[in-house]
Design brief:
Elements lengths: L4 H12 L8 E6 L4 E7 L4 E7 L3 H4 L8 H17 L6 E3 L8 H11 L5
Parallel strand pairs: 1-4
Antiparallel strand pairs: 1-2, 2-3
Helix pairs in contact: 3-4
């Protein structure tokens, strides 16, 4: 079975990243048209927080949610919700995607808003 480059990078990074209750894993999923981010506590196996560009708050402002601007707005919304849940430190799991484009825009916005990776 052939494993793609992204899948190899994902599996290699997953070995090193483990989310805990104090420092959960920020897991990012990028599709062609949308972006999803969630905080995962791997110890208990629970998702603590989840946001997506499919949310009505974000989707109404953009013609296409698969853009860098939509990723930046998602980063702001994610950081606000994480701060409400008293989470400021996370482990950033980019799921094998290159740190470029939408992934970079989301991460840079989170860092500017006060999140620590």
């Amino acid at each position: 079975m052939k494993i793609t480059g992204r899948k190899k990078r994902y599996l290699r990074g997953k070995k090193k990243l483990l989310g805990t209750e104090k420092r959960p894993r920020l897991c990012l999923y990028r599709s062609l048209n949308n972006l999803n981010a969630q905080l995962v506590d791997d110890v208990s196996g629970k998702t603590l927080l989840s946001v997506s560009t499919l949310d009505k708050d974000i989707k109404k402002n953009f013609k296409s949610c698969g853009t860098v601007k939509a990723a930046a707005v998602l980063g702001e919304l994610f950081t606000q919700k994480a701060k409400q849940a008293n989470i400021t430190q996370v482990r950033f799991d980019r799921s094998g995607y290159l740190y470029h484009g939408r992934v970079k825009a989301f991460a840079e916005t989170c860092l500017k808003q006060g999140m620590k990776f």
